[in-house]
Amino acid sequence: MALIRIITKFAKEHRVLRTVQRRASNICSTFIPEFENHPEISSYDDLYAFSLKNTDEFWGTLAKSRLSWQKPFETVSDCNLSEGQARWFDGGQLNAAVNCVERHAQENPDRIALIWEKDEPGTQVNITYKELHEQTCKMANTLESHGIKKGDRVVIYMPVSPMAIEAMMACARIGAVHSVVFAGFSAEALASRIVDANAETVITADEGVRGGKLISLKKTVDEAVKNSHCVKRVFVYKRTGNEVSKSSLDICLEEQMSKASPVHKAAILDSEDLLFILYTSGSTGKPKGIAHSIGGYLLYASFTQQTVFNYQPGDIFGCVADIGWITGHSYVVYGPLCNGATTVIFESVPTYPDPGRYWEMVERLKINQFYGSPTALRLLLRYDDSFVTKYDRSSLKTLGCVGEPLNHEAWSWFHTVVGEKRCDVVDTWWQTETGGISITPRPSAPGAHIEGGMPMRPFLGQQPCIVGNDGKIQSGNDVEGALCLATPWPGMARTIYGDSKRFVETYFRLSDGVYFSGDGAHRHSNGYYQITGRMDDVINVSGHRLGTAEIEDAMDEHKDVSETAVVGFPHELKGEGIYAFVSLKESIKETPEEIIDDLKKVVKTKIASYAVPDFILITSALPKTRSGKIMRRILRKIAANKEDELGDISTLADPESVSQLVESHKNMM
Ligand code: PRX
């Protein structure tokens, strides 16, 4: 019987694969079986048009065939972008962990779910779907035995590891809402996220390991918990087993899980119940807890993972993002696992032990799709190409990038050196708020051209538009303005946790009936989209969003600081660097150097290392309008060494201050 099952399964997978190869060349660069024989669809353009015109039929069909529902949904969508409201698959009940783990553990127990590429070079750990399921159940039982229940928020502050993914899945199984915090954030940043979510539970590790260095996670959690009185328990996983600080709230995770049952009954949840919160920076105030719900997010993450990357059964999917960011959520964890894929979880950094790390890993693990960041590529292309070419990369089929513009040099290196001009390069545009990829060269018509340096085409079901200064949607091509999305999609964020007013005001007020991304874009004469950068006071450092206000707030707390203004400037490696202009109070005892040092420490302590400004310029005054508003436009030009483009400064209260600033900037460089 078992043999027959294996043969049938093999034949089935093979048949699907052959069909994929045969059909892929028909309508779309990727096989989408649900619409292959649809009477209205005979080309990719038809499929795209159908996805916009028949939104409910399009997404409803996919949701039925791709997700396992405990109770079928009654309506597909109920959305009103004017009100910032979206509901998908109402009436439907499902569980994300059942979809991502349990159903595959039943169908293909021995298939590898996770390949943990540990920090230590050459060390990998394979976890099958059966093992992942059992571990998830043990963790779910552990959490429940400590009183954690549906709707509770659980903060996960962990290294990229199977245990972290089991924690996410265990939360999903019991209906708790996870909030993964990147394990590089400081104690204060972690505390503010714990408090905002009012979380009683934190799951962490003794230490993290990255690039051969130990990171004291538990110590940071202990500090954070001192300032977050809501926390009642801290589960600690032993990543290194070293002696670390202890607190009365600690619970040893492995010990608890070893006693727990590997059998667990998954909670039956509504499609619109929250799956997770993920904090991201905005232009004002504290980071926002972007909230995603179960059904829509899961469908969107998994559908995009399969179709953008042309993932096929048996492929090894390698997204090297950290699970602390949305890319990790959608394309390391939820998207691939929902599709029953084998997903690589990468704990290390691209240059450890040397700049060949990614490509050695590609050869050893036989990775088929590689998804990374422009910053890492810009860093790696500085080294000799032999770090790439000495490894066999013939397994690679699709290369992808996200987080910031992929400049031509990096695109061309990725395409030519890494991909040997064989692989499609997908420059994908999306955000924490979109849940998954929204603009991307693939899928597309078979053989459609890919142009370097831009994400190009809307994903299926997506209708980007450009809103001009007048708040109106621009018609025609060759237009530039605010990048908005005009059609609701299942993966869109549902709210900002605890602040639905801010959600509506931030994303749905620029122009009626569209979602505003915060980015600017140019729609070229051929209709392709190119991102021009953020339009708000958010800067993008190595693909990570940072609000200038967050950094200013941190520095303003220094006793000697009177006022600060932070701007971004073009940075060769990081995309954008951070430049802080700081004016001090009078009669300061410390030297400027000491204050600069202090300020760097303050930012590191309050936010994270990556938020520390590259330059801090101490100045006597900041340029302001007569009404007292800091002229950031001028500061941006100075930081970018474009003092000849300062424009009209006559409206300033003190135009003289500008020449002094330019002078000090030049002296500092
Ligand atoms: O400015 C855009 C930039 O990253 C922002 C979203 O950041 P986050 O929510 O942290 O998610 C990053 C990973 C999805 C966007 O508003 N961005 C993302 N992808 C691109 C990009 N900028 C240019 N080109 C891209 N492909």
Automatic annotation (TrEMBL):
<comment type="similarity">
    <text>Belongs to the ATP-dependent AMP-binding enzyme family.</text>
</comment>
<dbReference type="GO" id="GO:0016208">
    <property type="term" value="F:AMP binding"/>
</dbReference>
<dbReference type="InterPro" id="IPR032387">
    <property type="entry name" value="ACAS_N"/>
</dbReference>
<dbReference type="GO" id="GO:0005524">
    <property type="term" value="F:ATP binding"/>
</dbReference>
<feature type="domain" description="AMP-binding enzyme C-terminal">
    <location>
        <begin position="550"/>
        <end position="629"/>
    </location>
</feature>
<dbReference type="Pfam" id="PF00501">
    <property type="entry name" value="AMP-binding"/>
</dbReference>
<dbReference type="InterPro" id="IPR011904">
    <property type="entry name" value="Ac_CoA_lig"/>
</dbReference>
<feature type="domain" description="Acetyl-coenzyme A synthetase N-terminal">
    <location>
        <begin position="44"/>
        <end position="100"/>
    </location>
</feature>
<dbReference type="InterPro" id="IPR042099">
    <property type="entry name" value="ANL_N_sf"/>
</dbReference>
<dbReference type="InterPro" id="IPR020845">
    <property type="entry name" value="AMP-binding_CS"/>
</dbReference>
<feature type="domain" description="AMP-dependent synthetase/ligase">
    <location>
        <begin position="102"/>
        <end position="494"/>
    </location>
</feature>
<dbReference type="InterPro" id="IPR000873">
    <property type="entry name" value="AMP-dep_synth/lig_dom"/>
</dbReference>
<keyword id="KW-0436">Ligase</keyword>
<keyword id="KW-0547">Nucleotide-binding</keyword>
<dbReference type="InterPro" id="IPR025110">
    <property type="entry name" value="AMP-bd_C"/>
</dbReference>
<keyword id="KW-0067">ATP-binding</keyword>
<dbReference type="GO" id="GO:0003987">
    <property type="term" value="F:acetate-CoA ligase activity"/>
</dbReference>
<dbReference type="InterPro" id="IPR045851">
    <property type="entry name" value="AMP-bd_C_sf"/>
</dbReference>
<dbReference type="Pfam" id="PF13193">
    <property type="entry name" value="AMP-binding_C"/>
</dbReference>
<protein>
    <recommendedName>
        <fullName>Acetyl-coenzyme A synthetase</fullName>
        <ecNumber>6.2.1.1</ecNumber>
    </recommendedName>
</protein>
<dbReference type="GO" id="GO:0005739">
    <property type="term" value="C:mitochondrion"/>
</dbReference>
<dbReference type="Pfam" id="PF16177">
    <property type="entry name" value="ACAS_N"/>
</dbReference>
<dbReference type="GO" id="GO:0019427">
    <property type="term" value="P:acetyl-CoA biosynthetic process from acetate"/>
</dbReference>
